[in-house]
Design brief:
The structure is a homodimer of 586-residue chains. In chain A, helix 23 links the parallel strand 5 and strand 6. Chain A starts with a helix and ends with a strand. Chain A has a six-stranded parallel sheet, with helices on both faces. Chain A has a four-stranded antiparallel sheet with strand order 7-10-8-9, with helices on one face. Chain A folds into two domains: 380 residues, Na+/H+ antiporter like fold, CATH 1.20.1530.20; 188 residues, NAD(P)-binding Rossmann-like Domain (Rossmann fold). With 586 residues, chain A is of the alpha/beta class. In chain A, helix 1 packs across helix 13, helix 2 packs parallel to helix 13 and helix 17 runs antiparallel to helix 18. Chain A is globular. Chain A is 63% helix and 8% strand. Chain A contains 24 helices and ten strands. Chains A and B meet through helix 1, helix 3, helix 10, helix 13 and helix 22 of A and helix 1, helix 3, helix 10, helix 13 and helix 22 of B.
Chain lengths: 586, 586
């Protein structure tokens, strides 16, 4: 069969333009792609048309997409999820599931259709979340943490139920439920064993192969797991998702994992998945909106109300209050990509009617559209009431790059309240750090093995203080991109680099400037070595009304003691009047 | 249409295993993939089978492959190609073309078939070359340069002729040659104008979008150019190739270009193109080898003899001798990927018979298989005769990273014979360099804009001498990977880094150690500033028989004067007895 160039070009060009447009007005690009399919495709204008070859590319696109979704989920995090996350996920899944099932079966739908629509109503799309959280500056709040964990559990849960449903619906097995269940259990057991015991055995060999060598292996594992899911009577996307969950850093290494995730993301989000979403839009029957307006309104309504109220209700036992529960529910109401994938598979398998498929597409669009609006309102409400709680960060400890005298001294200060690891290429510096009772790793912080050894995967702070602006910037970028360390501080030494260059590097790294501004590293190193610098403590300079006078902070300010914590500071640090300053004095 | 998971998995698994096997014994992986298709597919064992959906993926694979081949070709280099390269390309194309045409038409083939087989015989596959050149350590020899330029010209030439042929063969136009010619000319003119004038206008906007933003644009341009080629009556691969030629650094920036080439290479070489090569093997009719053994032997014979003798004959006017011409011809005898792509399109278009297609596949395998063997023999022969000439490097000049006193002094020394540019983040160092009459760029050498500004695209040497081993290694890697600078030297300062770490970095960068070994940068900087170090010249220490005594080279050796050239040295530098050493003395 020929690759249809013109239809593919038309579909992709529409997808990219509509996706950009959606992003511009604050929505995930998948909404734009669906709309492009509906408006430009057969349902309305008929400018775009389907083609069997496009289906092939679309299916490859969703396999890659599910691989990517899986790669973003760390199975060990599922086990560590907070009570709040589990409750929110369960409430937000079960309530809309039950309500939607009840509506569909009351409306005359089959049990199977009811279960399928229920599942679609229960989905919470992970991919559409993180962008909004960044835009609303929520990443370090508790609701963001609960929401991410909740979406993760809800997605995994709905995919497992999906596997069961699609297997039962599979006509090949002649309806023997034991056989169906046995195959599904075998599939989950087999993939779990392969992912947990078999793949990690090849970790060493894989990590030596580099990205070019590992890439084809990832593609093969993806197809193998997908085919296994297919054989088990479930759908290939389930295998793709599970393959992604197991092809992680621990198996293929940090850098290779990032490279491959980048490839998969581009191949899926930037190329093939849009083909899927546009052609999914093709299958919408707009007459449904007119003929069954009631059904649409009711299904979308119960999905939304069920999601929000269900989340809030199940969240009550956490004691974090019904308001936080409502905002959580509003944030988890987006269904986006995963729901469309499930709905399209249901349609293709003949489980749901085209009418119901159209309702589900409308539900995906409508509910995803509510998220930015409702979440923003909710967050503003919580913030105004002072109830927007910062997350108890699961990451702790600081990594300091550079083990010069100043850094060793800073390390000692911080080590009072958190684990501190220093990294330096120089043996003498590392030895001196160890003599001072600190943990030091000798090696280049630019290599991810060194950072891994220093515990970067669990660190809350990375202080890049080598004094070499280039190195500091690069390590900072690595810490951000590969290890997702939330707080990255770069040293700024005016004698070594221009302020504009530092600002540039900082912006690039999304980091902060260490200390209170320019800091002459060599000078302080020399003074410390000479013994002319001592550490002392001082109160925060405040006005009579208690506001902090940032301009009057002492030079040589290293860190702040707040209660039992000692915190590294930066130029945008928010001081409390009761903080105690730890100052290097000479 | 369903994506056929099991057939795709089987094809890819065979492709990867056979490809790895081929590489292990020194051949390009495409040979293994073809063989897998022939042996495991319908022609022999019948374990693998075709599927229409695989064709779709295979076609997407060759579009990506041709995009990649195009991205590797710099059109401005085509214009600057040496006389030798042009002659070798012409001779190596025309001679097998004419001979194969004559054989096929004498054998009863149509004119069109003759032209098509001629073209396939004339092809020289670029992708299969570079690996062998590296393995045989030929990269800096004249034959390697001529071969690369020749392959480039021959590939471009054969694709242009291919466009013409396939247009003429296109039944839609009813055979009006004027219409056909007009459309082809319009296509070349249109894409050339779009690539030369239109795309560069968006360079600024594209470079600000980053890789994630540019990637969909590249896919759209690829499809647009392919569809334009299709509309002009030629084949889409021609559009893909031309799109690649114009989507270069000057349009999308160095880093984005490298990122996208990496993506395309992985998507093509590591995923979809193998589907094409395996399924191409499916179409081979092994009966041909038995029934038309004579035809196979003659076609492969005239292609090989024509390529080697034709290249040598046309190369004579360069005055570099018939021996070098023969070795060149042997090196350019590989046809690999591009020939298979052309043959498969000829088969699909009904221009060549399945018998002839099978002959062409055998030709691709047989001729590519000769390359490593014949080239190795030829090179050994030339080397033994002392006729293996080092290329007159088209790159000149050195970039020194770091503008400390030692680097400024080294810069002055080298500037006697080549352009020298220093890069430093420190303003005072740059000012001092400029005062000394040197060219200095202030900025971070880790950003490709700085290296571009310093002329890294044309530099022969990059001396990473910041004294910071991490920075040096990273700049060296950037110089190699993004700017392909042939000589990268890293400073080794034993007081700052362990020898093993330096060796590691050097191996990673594929660079050399600057000077004669460990070099105490700070120490020499201090002496130079104090005025206690002076530059003097000395003869090379030699034994009575003229062999160089490397162990007796003086400390502080900076560079070597050889005739009118001044050359940077490294630990593996080959000294000549008549060289003059430039030494820093204190």
């Amino acid at each position: 069969m020929e690759l249809p160039l013109l239809p593919l070009l038309a579909v992709l060009a529409s997808a990219f333009l509509a996706g950009k447009l959606a992003e511009r007005i604050g929505y995930p690009s998948v909404l734009g792609e669906l709309m492009a399919g509906i408006v430009l495709g057969p349902p309305l204008l008929g400018l775009l048309t389907s083609h069997p070859a496009l289906d092939v590319l679309a299916q490859l696109g969703i396999l890659l997409m599910m691989l990517y979704v899986g790669m973003e989920i760390d199975p060990s995090e599922l086990g560590r999820a907070s009570k709040g996350g589990i409750l929110a996920a369960l409430g937000g899944f079960i309530t809309p599931f039950v309500l939607a099932y009840w509506v569909v079966t009351s409306w005359g739908g089959s049990t199977m259709e009811g279960l399928f629509v229920g599942m679609a109503a229960g989905v919470t799309s992970l991919a559409t979340k993180s962008r909004i959280l960044v835009d609303l500056k929520l990443l370090d709040t508790r609701i963001a943490h609960v929401m991410m964990a909740g979406a993760l559990i809800a997605d995994t849960l709905s995919l497992v139920i999906f596997a069961g449903l699609i297997s039962v619906a599979n006509p090949e097995d002649g309806g023997s439920l034991w056989l169906v269940a046995g195959k599904v259990v075998l599939f989950f057991g087999g993939t779990w064993a392969a992912g947990t015991y078999l793949l990690p055995r090849f970790a060493g060999a894989l990590q030596r192969m580099g990205t070019a060598g590992v890439f084809p292996v990832v593609i093969l594992v993806l197809l193998l797991f997908s085919e296994a899911a297919h054989l088990a009577g479930a759908h290939g996307i389930l295998g793709a998702f599970i393959a992604g969950m197991f092809l992680r850093e621990n198996v293929i290494g940090h850098t290779v994992s990032r490279d491959i995730m980048t490839w998969v993301r581009r191949g899926a989000v930037g190329f093939l998945a849009p083909v899927f979403f546009v052609t999914a839009g093709f299958q919408v029957d707009l007459a449904v909106l007119v003929d069954s307006t009631m059904l649409v309104v009711i299904v979308v309504g119960v999905a939304t109300v069920g999601k929000i109220l269900g989340t809030a209700l199940f969240y009550l036992p956490t004691g974090y209050g019904w308001r936080e529960g409502l905002v959580l529910g509003a944030g988890m109401n987006g269904r986006g990509a995963v729901e469309i994938i499930i709905a399209q598979i249901g349609l293709a398998a003949g489980i749901i009617s085209q009418e119901m498929f159209s309702v589900l597409v409308v539900m995906a669009i409508a509910t995803t559209a509510t998220v930015p609006v409702l979440l923003k309102l909710g967050v503003t409400w919580l913030r105004a009431r002072g109830e927007l709680v910062t997350a108890r960060e699961s990451r702790t400890g600081a990594i300091i790059i550079g083990a010069s005298p100043l850094n060793r001294l800073l390390g000692k200060v911080l080590a009072d309240s958190m684990p501190v690891t220093l990294i330096d290429t120089r043996e003498d510096h590392c030895a001196a750090a160890r003599e001072a009772g600190l943990v030091a790793v000798q090696g280049s912080a630019l290599e991810d093995v060194t950072l891994t050894e220093a515990g970067a995967g669990k660190a809350a702070y990375l202080l890049a203080h080598t004094g070499n602006p280039g190195i500091d910037a690069l390590v900072g970028r690595l810490a951000r991109q590969v290890f997702s360390i939330p707080h990255v501080h770069l040293l700024f030494d005016a004698s070594r680099m221009k302020s504009s260059a530092h600002q540039n590097a900082k912006a690039h790294v999304l980091g902060e400037t260490s200390f209170t501004g320019s800091f002459a590293l060599d000078e302080w190193d020399r003074r410390i070595m000479e013994g002319s610098a001592t550490v002392c403590e001082a109160p925060v300079p405040t006005r009579a009304d208690g506001t902090v006078l940032k301009d009057e902070l002492p030079a040589g300010l290293l860190a702040v003691r707040r209660g039992r914590d000692v915190l590294p500071i930066h130029t945008h640090f928010k001081y409390h009047p009761e903080d105690i300053l730890i100052v290097l004095d000479s």
